[in-house]
Design brief:
Blueprint (H helix, E strand, L loop, with lengths): L1 E3 L4 E7 L25 E5 L3 H8 L7 E3 H5 L1 E8 L3 E5 L4 H4 L4 H4 L13 H13 L4 E5 L7 E6 L6 E9 L2 H10 L3 E3 L2
Parallel strand pairs: 4-10, 6-7
Antiparallel strand pairs: 1-6, 2-5, 3-8, 5-9, 7-8
């Protein structure tokens, strides 16, 4: 188990046209979503780099990132209002769920790899239904130094929105991309 301390700031990257606090449950599109749509999941990061990588660096073979794509996103921050208890689904925590890094990090592609999220979604549903934990801590697929959080909607009161709709700075973006071998392209 992992714990996020009261007062810890968590980060999210979201589309500029939607609110930052959104617990998706529409169609089990993302990695830790409930396959049956009974609960929602809010995706966060311990730093802004994690959700940035998860949102904008999804094609590692394409080394160019268009500024237009970044400009359509916004940053948000949340503070933990109480300790947040998370299932640790990385490192030794993988063994508890009878999986591997590959099992929870498969690339989702509905054409070439349908069902790639079946394992993490099963794990998410298991954690939600058999524990009182607030969510899951996992490693970003696109920068495994970054720890991310899939917060269950039942833990909504455990966070408060601090900032929302903050434009992502171009210089910061250039630095993050450069450190990872990407190039920012402005058209």
């Amino acid at each position: 188990m992992a714990t996020i301390a009261t007062g810890r700031v968590l980060h999210r990257v979201h589309a500029a046209t939607v609110a930052a606090k959104w617990y998706g449950r529409k169609d089990a599109t993302w990695r830790w979503d409930d396959p049956d749509g009974k609960f929602g999941v809010l995706y966060l990061g311990k730093t802004l780099v994690g959700p940035f990588a998860e949102t904008l660096l999804r094609r590692p073979t394409d080394r160019d990132v268009l500024w237009d794509q970044v400009a359509r996103r916004r940053a948000a921050s949340f503070s933990a209002t109480r300790p947040i208890r998370l299932a640790k689904v990385h490192g030794p925590g993988l063994g508890w769920f009878r999986t591997t890094t590959a099992g929870v990090s498969a690339d989702f592609d509905p054409v070439d790899n349908p069902g790639a999220y079946a394992v993490p979604q099963r794990i998410s549903a298991e954690i939600y239904s058999t524990t009182s934990l607030d969510g899951i801590q996992y490693r970003s697929r696109f920068d495994n130094d970054e720890l991310c959080i899939a917060l269950f909607d039942r833990a909504d009161a455990a966070i408060s929105l601090d900032t929302e709709g903050v434009a992502i700075a171009k210089d910061w973006t250039r630095t993050v991309l450069g450190d990872r071998g990407y190039t920012l392209i402005e058209l």
